[in-house]
């Protein structure tokens, strides 16, 4: 069976302190403590570049405003947690609909120039940090872009980073919201570049009644096995085939692969979530692919998830979903 064999099988969570402009713009040391104390070793920081520019000008970077990321990196080092610095919104693109970008990363040279400037800034800032401690995820969930346009942008950004820090580990999300491997970039595997998949299949299970997903309120009642992705019913065999494609790509090209996001929104019945999660994580482990739940705290997380069908346990002032945690810890 094909497996990825380049990256450690990091396991952990996304921390959303600087995700959208309504976020606090900072991270909390307690989250790093909790991640470490519960036995995990990875956090992904989905970032919004608007937090560190002046006057809405994507070329006017205020490096003092990146200090919240600096602090997160230091806490990661302190608690033995790998920190993946990820752009959820980069100049010219975000999968989120909270802002309309002034230009298009896939088509406008100005946007690409800004994108390269931001990543070169981060590369200079964290040069010297070992790849075991810090990695870069260039752009969250590219969608509605051709492989050719996507490859042009990613190659340019990789070059801009490696001109500042030739050894930096870089992660590229798959196409179609992180679900399609990037075999066309196979040559980059030899240049400290890895790839990131997602654990959001089938959507009818993972995003049932998620208010930000069009049509989610009309999804059928979730079940597992048997959840819907479009008009197609999924089961474990289908998931094995899907992630097997990632493992085959990893082995064929020598890519590292990690699953940067995954989980189920809190409207999916808890028993369905646990059965689906157990299958997904078992499959990922079989392919030696690590994972990060979309959040630690919140509707996809193990803390304060707001579910009405869970017997929560008190934990450091939070409501802990012990059953979900136990599934995670199995893998």
Provide structural commentary.
The strands form 3 sheets. An 8-stranded parallel barrel has the order 1-2-3-5-6-7-10-11. A two-stranded antiparallel sheet has the order 8-9. The chain has a single domain (11-203, 236-330), classed as TIM Barrel, CATH 3.20.20.80. It is built from 9 helices and 13 strands. The chain is 33% helix and 18% strand. It has 331 residues and is of the alpha/beta class. The mean pLDDT is 97. The chain is globular, with a radius of gyration of 19 Å. Helix 8 runs parallel beside helix 9.
N/C terminus separation:
18 Å
Which value, in Å, is the CA radius of gyration?
19 Å
What would CATH call the architecture? Alpha-Beta Barrel
By secondary-structure content and strand pairing, the structural class works out as: alpha/beta
CATH topology: TIM Barrel
Proportion of beta-strand residues: 15-25%
Note the run of SSEs as H and E: EHEHEEHEHEHEHEEHEHEEEH
Count of helices? Answer: 9
Instruction: Please report the first level of CATH classification, the CATH class.
Output: Alpha Beta
The largest sheet, given as strand count, sense and whether it forms a barrel, is: 8 strands, parallel, barrel
How many separate structural domains? Answer: 1
Q: How would you state the average pLDDT, rounded? A: 97
Shape: globular
Read across the widest sheet, the strand sequence of neighbours is 1-2-3-5-6-7-10-11
* Fraction of residues in H or I helices: 25-40%
CATH superfamily: Glycosidases
Total beta strand runs: 13
Low-pLDDT residue spans: none
